Amino acid sequence: MTKNxxxxxxFNKNEIKELAGRHVPLDKSLDxxxxxxLPSQIKARGYYTKQDLQxxxxxxxxxxxxxxxxxxxxxxxxxxxxxxxxxxxxxxxEVLVLLYGVNWPxxxxxxxxxxxxxxxxxDFRALWSLGVxxxxxPYNFDLWWVYTSYCRKIVKEAGVSMRALDLxxxxxxxxxxxRIKKGNHDE
Length: 187
Hints:
The protein is an all-alpha fold. About 60% of the residues lie in helices and about 0% in strands. It contains 10 helices and no strands.
């Protein structure tokens, strides 16, 4: 049984495209590779290579670089093959956290780019943009699945891609989280 999380979008759905358009990647070259080049290669082969995994984890969280590098190549390929081929949602995400240095947010990145338009990226900024304060909920399957379902609903209602929603959630937090924490808001 999944828990009910009180997600509520902090901005109007009509602002998703505008917010997404304001996003500026930290590393344009790496962003272009993980967003535009690698996904089609990964989908064609049906798994992530160790090098792919390292690039996506570096893109998500540079702090994990040394841990992710310790994964054996064959283990990376087999784990990610399972994640990209199973129909079981729980297995799909949880098998990825077997990889050394891969936590729930990084696993969600692998699904976000491994499946076109199905999965959001689990991130404290995105959760904050949905009304969840950092550290207030544990990362687990229940949270991830309710979050994923909620984001799919928003994407459908707003007529945008999951990528656009992900960028908008991140950008809204970047622009507003510290301001609202300090009490400078209208809520």
